[in-house]
Amino acid sequence: PHTRSGEGRWRDRQSAVSQQIAALERILGERLFERLKGASGVSLTEAGKVLVRHTRDLGALLASAQADMEAFSAGTLGSLRVGAFQTPGARILPEILREFFVVSPGTEVRLGESVTDHGLLDELEEGELDLAFAALPVRDGPFVVTPLIEDPFLLVTRTAPPVGADGFLAPARHRVSLALVTFASCPAAEAAIAYLRGLGYEPDLRLRSDHNETLQRAASLGLGAALVPRLSLVPGDEGLQRVPLSPEAPTREIVLVSRSDRELAPAAEIFSQLAQRVCGRLVDGRHLAA
Question: What is the pTM of this model?
């Protein structure tokens, strides 16, 4: 079979380059090269020198863009929009971010904050958030729910309620009224109230609020015992007694929610994995003192 010589292939490449240069000169409307007199080489015109400076800048820009794309794919660059209601925002999120920024230092985290999780799920569904903390039950929607932690309820009060030998709230010997302050819109709190009734306590509801500090302050002033999950307690008030209900009592289950119809970005995947790891430590009791 016939094959072209190396010299022929070189002439083909030279011709192709010449055609590309000619096309570029037509586009720019300027000559970029000129032949050297008495020599076989060429030199750049002044217009060609200007173009070379731009191509060097362009090469650096493309290299930077490629590095950014690789960082984005690795989850170390970009932005992450996370919604959090007050308890995970104060007690869980900082622990996650402390590790997240070690792994993903170039990612900007934009936090959407809310007292409860109600509006956060709407923002997630509308595409305004990438991830959102919520408490079960999560309403119907295009969601993926990742369990994080079961947050047990406590009775927080100035006067110690009866406690069994196991350290948990003891059943009442006879039906007794219990002045109570608790959440206004937490389904798990309603289940905890029903559990208290089963132990012989008749809740006398004095105050309902979704603000953690309001409930704790009300308990501190003696308005009633605060029925709240452990993670909602604000550290520092040593004058309050904290009594867990029992291992069988209802808990508030905190979860991380994402969209089922969207693939998680690398940074969101990293955040989700760290959230599960951090909450695993909280279950073990570390960083949980209130």
Answer: 0.72
